[in-house]
Write a structure and sequence with these properties.
alpha+beta; Immunoglobulin-like; about 25% strand
């Protein structure tokens, strides 16, 4: 009788322990040894609204996820896999090219969540399960991945297209309807949405060191299209004048409304910085 009671107690303890382990969140980390930025989709839902080359997704409750990695450039590539993860663990995958020159996911091990390492330039996002899943895979770099879905320049909501390819303004000679009333030169095709920009801005502001802030800011500007007003908002996050100038110079060719770039002058503390930027731009 005592043996049966002991067996039941041990079984109940083991069952509760197992249930508790699966109730603990898990994490996934994706990184590339190179510099290629990417978006991570889990179960068809985009997780990182800004491109990055080291992305951590936490608060995962399932043990199997469909993973879609979209690398928009320099060569458009897609990885589509299913991965299995263990509770209370962080599983790490590299996004790297194989011998055929194709990108693939390679497992690099796992760590207990309590001992999981982090990187200063790592993008950390809580698992997003609320957006509508992607209905179809993007077919090329002209597909704009926006808020969990696919937005194509040929869709009705995309006004103006990319214009005619030619000299000047990076070949963009038509004005998409993203900034009503603006008719100046265009530096890039599709500016970040307000939601994406606010997420990017928060990521920068959470960094403690100026060097980390400028690194993340350049990653964002290098992988996206910004409005002049957004460039200014990012510059305000920096504490040093030199960092502001560095970022303004970097962001200028990646700015949608280049004709409004004078707005960023308000972020400078010294008139000499305005002069240096104007000289860089060629004014």
């Amino acid at each position: 009788m005592k043996k049966n009671i002991l067996k039941h107690v041990l079984f109940l303890f083991a069952f509760l322990s197992l249930q508790n382990s699966f109730s603990q969140n898990a994490g996934l980390v994706f990184f590339t040894p190179g510099s290629e930025p990417f978006h991570v989709f889990l179960n068809g839902i985009k997780q990182n609204s800004i491109l990055g080359n080291n992305v951590k997704v936490f608060a995962l409750e399932e043990n199997i996820y469909n993973v879609l990695i979209v690398i928009p450039y320099p060569v458009f590539s897609i990885i589509n896999n299913s991965v299995k993860i263990n509770p209370a663990r962080e599983t790490v995958f590299s996004v790297a090219k194989n011998q055929k020159g194709e990108f693939e996911l390679s497992p690099k091990g796992e760590n207990p969540l309590s001992f999981a390492p982090s990187s200063p330039n790592q993008i950390m996002v809580k698992f997003n399960s609320t957006l509508a899943p992607v209905q179809s895979l993007p077919s090329g770099p002209t597909d704009v991945l926006n808020n969990g879905g696919i937005r194509n320049p040929n869709d009705p909501g995309f006004q103006g297209g990319q214009g005619n390819m030619g000299s000047g303004n990076n070949g963009l000679t038509q004005t998409p309807n993203y900034l009503p009333g603006y008719n100046g030169p265009i530096g890039c095709p599709v500016p970040m949405s307000l939601q994406e920009f606010q997420s990017a801005k928060t990521t920068i502001s959470l960094k403690t060191f100026e060097s980390s802030k400028i690194t993340i800011a350049k990653q964002i500007a290098g992988a996206n299209c910004l409005l002049s007003s957004q460039v200014k908002e990012i510059m305000i996050l920096f504490g040093f004048e030199g960092t502001k100038i560095e970022f303004a110079k970097f962001a200028y060719p990646r700015t949608y409304d280049k004709g409004n770039f004078f707005m960023v002058n308000d972020a400078f503390d010294f008139d000499s910085s305005i002069g240096e930027l104007n000289k860089f731009i060629g004014k």
